[in-house]
């Protein structure tokens, strides 16, 4: 069960004992109700004897007294004077201009903080009008003197800054240079040191295979197909509510518990804490969505299909331009022949070899062993013949 806690502050009145006659007086008065002696600074405030039964102060004028700040001394009779009084309540002396710089225009405009804790997580609700709502209290926060600290300019750690900024720049520049170095093309004068060709002929034969599979997985061109309906799997169906669980929680069984944590405001009043404890009650029952599993049917088929397999391969090779195919031939409609060919030209530049693969026989026919060529190469092995050079006359 989750416990919801909400805390708030409220004000109660304290008492002071007259040192002249021993009478207990309410915190709001500054003159003893029995002997009319003024309150003195050594007559401290103390919680009322019936503290727990003391009512909460909600009257704006009394709250104004409560948060007026510590008392002053009358400069004429030395009795305690509230710092918002114009005249001394004891001798009637004029205390000067009514100072209200640190007091709100109306205590009913002040705000309080209410802390709410739900399951160990605390939140603050601020800016709630106190006197318009029950059991709420405004608290006045005295403005603190502000000062302008001396600004200290940050010192830049230049070596570290240069390392952070310069290292990526150096790495990027190095990478760009490496790509240019590897892939930049340049021309070389080369000699054809070898040419070669190969031609391969292969005979494939068609066979009949049998298999079983679902209808949508049969190969194209299947024949002698025989299908029947079978369960292929299941699917979700018939949605319904299941696994009930409580939902839509609301606070319930709430009660206010006094914490007995009070702070003397030294104005005849004290500020206390109170905590409201509530249980978390669930008002509704919710359900998860569950599904039944319904069978799914499809066609399971047996079938025959054709497959081609290589049964013979012959290759011819040469280092000249006399290219020819092997005399291999297919036998009947159940066989077919496939043919492939390839070419290679090898160049030499200062004892370094480069290999070039012509696209077809026409391209291959341009090259002869011993001929000089200008080729365009790079450092990763790319070769592009540019033009055939004139042979030097002996």
UniProtKB/TrEMBL annotation:
Q: Name one GO molecular function term.
A: zinc ion binding
Domain RanBP2-type residues, every copy: 12-41
Q: Which InterPro entries match?
A: Znf_RanBP2, Znf_RanBP2_sf
List keywords of the entry alphabetically.
Answer: Membrane, Metal-binding, Transmembrane, Transmembrane helix, Zinc, Zinc-finger
Regions that span the bilayer:
161-184
* Protein name stated in the entry: RanBP2-type domain-containing protein
Upper taxonomic lineage: Bacteria, Candidatus Falkowiibacteriota
């Amino acid at each position: 069960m989750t416990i919801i806690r909400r805390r708030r502050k409220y004000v109660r009145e304290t008492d002071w004992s007259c040192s002249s006659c021993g009478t207990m007086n309410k915190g709001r008065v500054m003159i003893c109700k029995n002997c009319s002696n003024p309150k003195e600074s050594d007559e401290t405030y103390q919680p009322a004897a019936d503290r727990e039964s003391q009512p909460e102060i909600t009257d704006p004028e009394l709250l104004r007294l409560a948060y007026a700040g510590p008392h002053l001394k009358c400069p004429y009779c030395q009795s305690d004077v509230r710092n918002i009084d114009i005249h001394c309540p004891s001798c009637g002396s004029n205390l000067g201009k009514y100072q209200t710089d640190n007091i709100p225009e109306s205590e009913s405009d002040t705000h309080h903080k209410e802390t709410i804790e739900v399951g160990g997580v605390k939140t603050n609700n601020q800016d709630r009008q106190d006197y318009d709502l029950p059991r709420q209290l405004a608290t006045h926060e005295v403005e603190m003197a502000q000062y302008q600290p001396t600004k200290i300019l940050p010192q830049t750690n230049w070596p570290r800054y240069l390392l952070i900024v310069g290292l990526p720049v150096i790495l990027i520049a190095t990478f760009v240079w490496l790509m240019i170095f590897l892939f930049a093309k340049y021309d070389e004068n080369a000699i054809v040191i070898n040419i070669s060709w190969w031609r391969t002929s292969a005979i494939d034969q068609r066979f009949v295979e049998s298999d079983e599979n679902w209808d949508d997985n049969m190969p194209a061109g299947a024949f002698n197909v025989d299908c029947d309906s079978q369960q292929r799997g299941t699917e979700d169906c018939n949605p319904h509510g299941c696994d009930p669980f409580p939902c839509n929680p609301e606070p319930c069984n709430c009660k206010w518990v006094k914490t007995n944590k009070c702070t003397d405001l030294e104005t005849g009043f004290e500020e206390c804490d109170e905590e409201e404890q509530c249980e978390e009650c669930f008002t509704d029952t919710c359900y998860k969505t569950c599904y039944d599993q319904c069978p799914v049917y499809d066609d399971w088929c047996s079938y025959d299909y054709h497959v081609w397999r290589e049964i013979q391969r012959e290759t011819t090779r040469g280092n000249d331009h006399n290219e020819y195919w092997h005399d291999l031939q297919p036998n009947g409609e159940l066989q077919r022949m496939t043919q492939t060919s390839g070419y290679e030209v090898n160049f030499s530049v200062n004892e370094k070899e480069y290999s070039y693969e012509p696209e077809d026989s026409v391209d291959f026919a341009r090259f002869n062993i011993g001929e000089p060529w200008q080729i365009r190469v790079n450092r990763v092995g790319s070769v592009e013949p540019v033009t055939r050079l004139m042979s030097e006359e002996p």
